[in-house]
Amino acid sequence: MWQLISDGLNFLTAQSSVSFLSLFWFVLVFEIPRYLMGFISVAVLSVRTSKAPGPVDVGRVSAVIAGHNEEDSIERCVVSLREQSRPPDEIIVVSDGSTDRMPEKLRELLASGRIQEAHCTQMRAGKSAGFNLGAGRATGDIIVNVDSDCTFDRNAIREIVRPFTDPLMAGVAGNIVVRNPNVSVITSCQAIEYMISISQGKQAANLIEQMTCVSGAFGAFRRVALERVGGLDAGGGEDLDVTLKLRTAGWKAFFAPDAICYTEVPTTIEALTRQRFRWERDAIRLRYRKHRDLLNPFSTRFDFIELLHELDFITFNIVAAAAFPFYLIWLFVTYGDFAPLILMAAQIGMWGLDGVTFLLAAWMVPKANALALVPYLPAYSPFYGLLMRFIRLAAYIQEWVFRASYRDTYVPQKVHNVRK
Amino acid sequence: MTAVAAERSGTEPQPVTGRKVLVAEDSPITHDLLKLLLNQRGHTVDIATDGRQALEALRTNDYDVALLDFHLPHMDGVQIANAIKQDTHGHKLPRLIAITADVEGLLSHAEGCENFDNIIPKPLDIYQVGKLVEEQAAIGDEVRAAEEASPAPRLAVETKGARAPASFFERLGYQFLVWPDDLEATRLSARAMQATLGDPRFDGILIKKPVSADDLATLWQRKALYVLPVVDLTGTLGVKADLDGSKLNAQDTDQIAQVLRRFQDQRARLNRDLLYSEVLSEQLVGRVFISGQPLTAALDPTSPTSVSYNTTMSGILVAREAETLCEQGLFKREFFDRFYVCGRCDSTRMHVREECFKCRSADLVEEPYLHHFKCAYQGPESQFRRGDELICPKCRRELTHFGFDYDRPGLMMVCGACGHAASDPAIGFVCLDCGAHADSDSCRTRDVYSYQLTEQGTGFAEYGRAFLGQASQALRFTELPIELVVALNAAAKRFNEEKVPFTLVNIFYENEREITAEHGARQFAQARELFLENMRANLSKADMVVEGQSYDFALFRDIGPEHARADFDSLCKDAQSTVRFDLGAKLKAFGPEDFS
Asked: Of A117 and B162, which is predicted with more confidence?
């Protein structure tokens, strides 16, 4: 292994610029822009550090938590919300057909005044319908959508509502940090992934107003806007869905890096694979079925601004995933036994870039406790560059060919049966 | 307000002193004692030692109260009473109180005893005498005031009002005290007075007019009345009565006889301590013993505690006394029910209701949630309702296929007052007595129990205070024999004037119960007598040994309790030496300071 690494390093340094291009075209096309975007966003953000301190007045804030069988986590989540520097004016919890003791738990919370409304249904309706029920009862101007397994940084609510001073702002995504990075290599890699995706993806997207996913774990909506687009729609990926709906209705979406929310990520490779399969399938379904008119120049909803993130997704997610196997085949066919060496050389280069990106991300998200993650950094590149890319590719094929997202248990089957 | 009126109004709470009292009594011990007692309370006492003297005194002086012994030389108490009632020779008619050890003789006297206003049984309860004299004097004042206010008043005083019509019960040949004729809160009839002496010929108390437990408090304030079964002809007492006469008719005589006999039998077994007790907790033990029924709690909407027991004592008092008895091990309890209690007024009459978590209004309307699968809209049904159609408020589609388009995942309670909604309501209470509101979380609870006698309790009922042992009882003056009280008074006087100490010794027999059970009460009495005889022989002439009821007593003059105690062991041993049974005598000493 070490021999391979040192050979790879020698190989990498021995390349001329032309041969470098011809060998590592894949990296140059699909990886380097990703890093570049991160570097640029950090550079820009470090110049304009216009962080307005103190609270802002955006009106009444309601927190809505919809969950299924969350008796263990709901109280911790509520306590975490009540501990806020700017606590929500009301907390509404929906127990979505829970079969555990969640309804009793909610009764206690309601009786002790720690939440203001509790709704318990006997049949599961799914996250979207649960949230819609709670949001329909909410009286706030801003509705914060919260997953019950999340806990919050003390200033999370204050920071997530701050962008709403812009009257066109309709959705703000919170910054999600992994709460259980120390459980396994898998969770450590995800912690690094979440951290880097902020500096590389969301911060950069913020700069060019390309934020497309107000995450379901922690996101805030302007109620008027949410009502106008009809709240969340049925099916998975409702967070991406509603953000796209809001954007195309003329509203703005934003990412609030200081609104920090902690959540637990899957601890095993199986659970992680299932989760990512679901996410990727939903992304495909939403972008290329439900919202495919965004790509149609003759549609009324067509907009060049939206085209930007569509192209970004096509290039760096779909094409990159699809092209990777071809690159591998090409490498092995052309260079035979040299191929592993070349791949290693590419990996070494990416390790270097990852190191820099990691440092930048650590500087931007101090709460992520980056130092403890350093030992896992070498595992991160193969994890993200290889594993995630293959998962994505498999998920895309599965969805396109088998429409697998219509069988996700995340949504009750009765809903799958009738939705688009 | 006149001076007289001012004085009179002052008499109500505080007995007026300086009454003039005639004591007609041939026994020098008794009249000495009565004089001493009444003088101490500030009254003037004249003594008459025979009947003629007494009548003479009554016709030449104004007395407030006359205490007349039934058996007197020349003329008995009843004759004196009749004579003075007929002709006072222009003097004030005093209140007449009979003193007698022969209550039956008095009551069966040919000339009748209705001229007496009250009866004091012998042996005398020295506390009762003082209290009664003052009470009767005050009543006399009132009667005279009433006479002055309206002429021809005597009829009004004597008339007992329209008597309730006789029921078949009274024709069954039983002796009943009748409410309200015999038992009024302020005044007992002569028959009722007799019953307070524990006369076994009374069979029960007949309730002929609607009463409450509070009205019947008299039964517990006097002696020996509480042991009588209560027969309720009105049906208003419910479970509190021992026999509901309103549901019985002349054919049910067997049942009536059975209940009354049961009470009679048990009453005969009840110890005198309890029969004559004025302590509520002891009466309660006696009551449960006599009725043969546990104190059973029953729901009662008329009581603020929502509970009453199968006795005429109010539920609150029963619970309080019974808890004390549980602590003493005489009662054991059994859970009956748990009540929510008003934090403001302590009532348990609480109105329970479902109410809004937010504004506490009870105006809640149940409404189903509807879930439209296709667009994930979920909300109350009213938002979907358009006439008899269901239209999704979000996507405007019609909901047509239950289970495929939509379903009803649950119910919500919507508050008509504030609009708050929740999937289940809060529970709240409103007090019916004071209107206070309480949440189910903050509302206190009270557990209510039924009670029954323990073995210990039954023992206490049968054997009296002695059964509980000496230590558990303080010295009771009412139990002391009269000659002892007189001697004790003299000793106390000597102590006060000359600082000569004295010791009263209380003798208690630990093995009384065992010996009685094994060899009979007569054997025990003989053994006890011998023991006292031996003790007398071993003590000096100046000392005194007196037989009491549950305990015996000795009075040592010239010696304080600390010295007396030193001799107890040898004293006991010597007295016990010739006695057949080991009596287990225990001696307890009381010095002058115990009587302060």
From this structure: A117
pLDDT at residue A49 greater than cutoff 60: no
ipTM rounded to 2 decimals: 0.76
CA distance A416 to chain B (A): 8
The mean pLDDT value for A4-22 works out to 77
Of A420 and A213, which is predicted with more confidence?
A: A213
Q: Does the pLDDT of residue B345 top 80, yes or no?
A: yes
The CATH number assigned to the domain holding B517 equals 3.30.70.270
Choose the final residue of a domain: B298, B316, B341: B341
Reading phi first (left if > 0) and then psi (alpha if -120 to 50, else beta), residue B435 is in: left
Residue A382 is predicted with a pLDDT of: 82
CB atoms within 10 A of CB A359: 14
Could you tell me if B217 and B284 lie in one domain?
A: yes
B396 close contact with A: CB closer than 8 A: no
Query: What share of chain B has pLDDT > 70, as a percent?
Result: 90
Residue B232 falls within a domain, yes or no? yes
**DSSP-derived pairing of the beta strands A252-263 and A169-178:** parallel
Is residue B163 classed exposed, middle or buried when 0-12, 13-18 and 19+ CB atoms within 10 A define those classes?
A: exposed
B419 in the Ramachandran plot: left (φ > 0), alpha (ψ -120 to 50) or beta? left
Cα torsion for B304, B307, B313, B319, to the nearest 10°?
-100
What is the distance of C-alpha B128 from the center of its chain?
Answer: 16
Residue B555 lies in a domain: yes
A91 touches chain B (CB under 8 A): no
Structure tokens at A77: 């989540």
Q: Looking at the domain assignment, is residue B67 inside a domain? A: yes
Summarised one tens digit per residue, pLDDT across range A38-48 is: 788 777 777 65
Q: How far is A67 from chain B (nearest CA, A)?
A: 14
Lowest mean pLDDT among A113-117, A279-283, A348-352, B355-359: A348-352
Beta strands in B3-100, from DSSP E residues, in sequence order: 20-24, 44-48, 65-69, 95-100
Q: Closest to B424 (Cβ–Cβ): which among A107, A130, A133? A: A107
B403 in contact with A, Cβ within 8 Å: yes
The rounded distance, in Å, linking the Cα atoms of A170 and A163 is: 9
For residue B336, give the H/E element and its range. Answer: strand B331-341
Cβ-count burial A200-226 (b if 16+ within 10 Å, e if not): bbbbbbbbeebbbbbbbbbbbbbbebb
Test B439 with A111 for CB contact under 8 angstroms: yes
Tell me how close the Cα of B417 comes to any Cα of chain A, in angstroms: 16
A43 touches chain B (CB under 8 A): no
A118 touches B at CB < 8 Å: yes
pLDDT of amino acid B10: 41
Contact of A129 with chain B, judged by CB distance below 8 Å, is answered with yes
User: Are B304 and B416 found together in one domain?
Assistant: no
Contact between residue B531 and residue B579 where contact means Cβ atoms under 8 Å apart: yes
Give the structural domain span for B577.
Answer: 469-595
Give residue-wise pLDDT tens across range A19-31: 777 778 888 888 8
Contacts of B72 (CB under 8 A, 6+ apart): B24, B25, B26, B50, B51, B54, B80
Residues 6+ apart with CB under 8 A from B320: none
pLDDT at B96 over 70: yes
Closest CA to B298 of B450, B433, B144, B442: B450
- Domains held by chain B: number: 4
Does position B265 have pLDDT exceeding 90, yes or no? no
- Residue B160 confidence (pLDDT): 41
Q: Are B303 and B312 in contact (CB under 8 A)?
A: no
